[in-house]
Amino acid sequence: MQLGSDGVETAELRADQDHPETNAVEEETPMLDVHVPHETHTWKDFWIHLGTITAGLLIAISLEQSVEKLHHLRQRHELEAALRAECDVNKERAEIDLARYDEDMTWLLGLHEDIGRMLATGGKANLPYRELHYRPMYLHGAPYKDTSVALMTAVWDTANADDRLALLPDDVVHAYSLLYHLRGEHFEVYRLLAHDALLRQAAFELMFADIATPRTPVLARMSATDLKQYDALVAQSFTADRQAKVWLRFVYGSNEAIRQGRYDFASIQRSTDEAQAAFADDYGKMAQEVAAQDAARDMTAATPAAKGLR
Predict the structure, then answer these.
(1) Which of 128, 208, 277, 299 qualifies as a cystine partner to 221, CB 3.0-4.6 A?
(2) Rounded to the nearest 5°, which phi and psi values hold at 136?
(3) What is the mean pLDDT of the chain?
(4) b/e string for 193-228 if b means 16 or more Cβ within 10 A?
(5) C-alpha span between 129 and 113 (Å, rounded)
(6) What is the three-class DSSP state of 267?
(7) pTM for the full model?
(8) Is residue 106 part of a domain?
(9) What are the Cα distances from residue 63, in Å, to 52, 59, 60, 66, 153?
């Protein structure tokens, strides 16, 4: 080891002297300084970039709105189809109810006549109780012999509750609103009144019936006062049925207009007028049916052979 003139160790100097070729390469090789080029931004580049972003956002919003609009359109078509189906069901049910009201009123007119004959003869006529028989009709494709049926409102009630009515055009909503208003605020009120009147009449009849046949009163057991009270109850039932039928005709006419896709007020009014005429109370026909029932009953009562067979 050698020391330099300044007393510093010179091993490194000796190493450089021992490999002169390495030193030469290092001295001859230039050092490269690499820099990432910087982009030159202009206002044009800025507006192009902003325009691209804006266009992308507009496309995304348009697509989202289109999907939502298609979804609402599908919901609207489904709701319209469901409401029309409910109208179809109610058409069938209303026709049954209209027939039942006619049969009820015919029966009540017959009872009124029987009570009058009992009063006129001082109870000596001893008429049998006039039974009510419903003729067969069809409900959902099957024979139906029972009393009247309620109209359906489930689709409308559900759509009204969850605000889906906003999907429908205004004229359609107004037409359906009128239909269900007539049904709920008018017909249903009188339907319940008619039902209550018949219940009061049935409760009175029970007081003059046998235990085995509680729905078949014996007219001969009624005094003149009882018969007059009974006649008043029968008259109330008849009037209530007639009023319920009046409003049911309005419902039926409105329902028919909507089923045919006619939602304006003039068309609905025309349809209700047609229903009032088509299902008008035909008292002459009712009187004929009562007379035919009386004739059949009198013939049966006057036939000894028929009594013997029973």
Answers:
(1) 208
(2) -65, 140
(3) 85
(4) bbeebbeebeebbeebbeeeeeeebebeebeeebbe
(5) 12
(6) helix
(7) 0.76
(8) yes
(9) 17, 6, 5, 5, 37
CA trace torsion 78, 80, 82, 83 (10° rounding): 160
Separation CA 140–CA 143 (nearest Å): 8
Burial degree of 80 (CB within 10 A; 0-12, 13-18, 19+): middle
The answer to whether residue 206 is domain-embedded is yes
> Is 36 within the bounds of a domain?
no
Distance CA 107, CA 260 (A): 35
Long-range contacts of 258-264, Cβ-Cβ distance < 8 Å, separation of 24 or more: 258/84, 258/87, 258/175, 258/176, 258/179, 259/84, 259/87, 259/88, 259/91, 263/171, 263/172, 263/174, 263/175, 264/171, 264/175
Task: Tell me whether residue 10 is in a domain.
Answer: no
- Expressed in angstroms, the distance from the first to the final Cα of the chain is 153
Give the per-residue pLDDT at 40: 58
Q: Answer whether residue 298 shows pLDDT above 90.
A: no
Which has more pLDDT, 226 or 305? 226
188, two tokens: 């249903």
Confidence of residue 1 (pLDDT cuts 50, 70, 90): very low
Q: Could you tell me which of 296, 293, 264 has the C-alpha nearest to residue 103?
A: 293
Residue 38 has pLDDT above 60, yes or no: no
Which residue range forms the structural domain that includes residue 212? Answer: 86-301
Q: Count of domains in the chain?
A: 1
Tokens matching residue 236 = 């109330």
Q: How confident is the model at residue 31 (pLDDT cuts 50, 70, 90)?
A: low
